[in-house]
Amino acid sequence: MAAVTEFVLLPIKPDAAPEAVASVIQANIATLLAQPGCQRVRSSRTHEDPNKLRLFADWASLEAHRTFAANAAAYGPFLQRMGGIVDAASFGPTNPRRPPFHVEFAAPPPTALDGDKGKSPIAEVLQVYYPSDVSEARRAEIYATTADFLGKLGAVAKGLMGEVALGWSVETDILFKGEKSRALVAVIGWTSYEAHMQTRDTEEFKKLIPMVRDIEGVVGMEMFHVSNVTTEGGQ
Question: What CATH code is carried by the domain that includes residue 25?
Fold first, then answer.
């Protein structure tokens, strides 16, 4: 069974006290790490929108996470606590609730996400969406092209930390612009947010980005930055 990283997006109530949010997140991280198979949990406000909080949980397998979700005694209080800080009013027809999804990285765990416990102070997370029925052979081609892009980026960009993770989502029904999609996720470690933005303004980057942006079948892309606090659990 393959290891997976769970990606969670939590829109936080604008009026939620930071102390209350921190208390809930700490309690729920403790709950996660008490589950068999949960190896570590990372958390961060999103650089681009501090009202969006991200969690990244490494699981030994998808089955381990599903076992936790089926355990009402542990999962019920977990959801109840989370409900107290999530901005449910932000959901609607143009902004539907986005359930967690899982990524099988080629070389787990994705250490570029480790933040305060790792080498990279900040991580860029790039999620590129493709049709839900993209074939296995086509996924392999897309993966190879994206890996080539990341290698060439490393040769010209300043501020990279030399940490990259790449993998496909397990789920094929991730909603993006109203369409069910499958995501190829790249995590790239940087010295700072500013270093990435400066790289994006270079001619070298502008020549490289079409390698990913113009891949046939791309539904769309999302990019954000996190500086995670990482909590380790039992292996």
Answer: 3.30.70.100
Mean pLDDT of 28-33: 97
Same domain, 122 and 207: yes
* CA trace torsion 114, 117, 121, 125 (10° rounding): 10
Dihedral pair phi/psi, residue 162, rounded to 5°: 80, 15
Residue with tokens 């069974």: 1
Asked if the structure places residue 205 within a domain, the reply is yes
> Residues 164-212: pLDDT tens digits?
999 999 999 999 988 999 999 999 999 999 999 999 999 999 999 999 9
Residues 120 and 221 in one domain: yes
Say if residues 199 and 155 touch (Cβ distance below 8 Å): no
pLDDT tens for 63-75 read 999 999 999 999 9
Domain that holds residue 137: 106-230
How many angstroms separate the CA atoms of 228 and 120, rounded?
10
Query: Measuring CA to CA, how many Å separate 202 from each of 14, 119, 163, 177, 198?
Result: 36, 25, 21, 29, 7
164 and 90 in a common domain: no
